[in-house]
Amino acid sequence: MKRVVIIAAPLLALAACATEQPAAAPRPSSPAASIAPSPGGSGSAPVAVPAAPEPVADGPCPYLTSSVVAEANGQHVTKVRTSADKPQPACFFYRPDGSVQLTVRIYVGEAAVAKALVDEAAPIATSSPASSPSGWKGGSLSGDGKAVYAVAKAGTAVVVTSNQEQTIKARRITETVIKNLKL
Fold it and tell me: pTM for this one?
C-alpha cells in the first residue's frame, strides 16, 4: 500500500501541473498583442510610426487646392494650415465652424514605416481593401462621422481623413494628391 501512495503522489502532482498548463498558455500572447506587429512579418521588430502631424502654419497646401477639397468633400473651406513635416507637409482643411474637415498626410521614407502608417490609419483587420490608384495598396473605412483612405507604395504613404463618412471622397482626394505630386 505504501508503494502505491509513493507512486501515486508524484503522478497526481504531475497531473495537477498538466491541467494548470492550458490556463497559463494565454499569458505569452498578451505581451505580443500589445506590441504593434511589424509589416515585414513574424520575427521582425516592431516598426515605429511617426507621431501624428500637427498644424503649425497657415496654408496654402502646396499640393492640393482648397477648391478641389471643397468640391470633393462637399464643404466650403475657410482656412488651410500645414505641418512642419518634410518633404511634404500635412495639410489641414477647415470648415466654416472652425473644425477640421479634411486632413492629408504624406510620408516618404522606409517602406515598412509607410505600410505601418497605413495599417495604423486603416487597419487591415477592420478596413476594406484599397488599391487606387493602380500600384498602391492599403485600406479604407468609415464610421463615427469620418472616413479614412490610406495607401502605400514602396516607401511612400498617403493618408486622407475626411469628416464625411463616404470613403469615395477621401479616395478622390488621395488620387489627386498622388497625381499632383507625381508619386
Answer: 0.75
